[in-house]
Amino acid sequence: MPTSAAAAPAVKVLPEPSGLPEPLPEPSRDELRLETVLGALSDPLRLTIVRKLLLESEDYDHSCGWFGLDRPKSSLTHHFKALREAGVTRQRQYGLERRSHVRVEDLDARFPGLLALVAAWSPQG
What we know:
Elements: H1 34-41, H2 44-56, E1 62-63, H3 73-86, E2 89-94, E3 97-102, H4 104-110, H5 114-120
Antiparallel strand pairs: 1-3, 2-3
Helix pairs in contact: 1-3, 2-5
């Protein structure tokens, strides 16, 4: 009996505006390692953050308050740092806040299909 896979939701890719601050330290595209990226995405909260950025972005990048996560700031800082250091997201400093977006082009170039899997993922419960 043939099965049909549901189409993955469309990933939003917004154009990079001019005049952005420099990104915080991150691995280059060539330095991205699958095991590091998968390790960062193995946490359900981080997977939720990336999925929300991929599917619901309203602007080029977002502060941690946009996500509406009920977690201590120190916990969120840890999760956003883990995503940035793995090369999944890019963060920029805007005054006192950091804003993030997914490195779609870099991840698609290194690991084709990975972001489609993240976008198609559904959280439990």
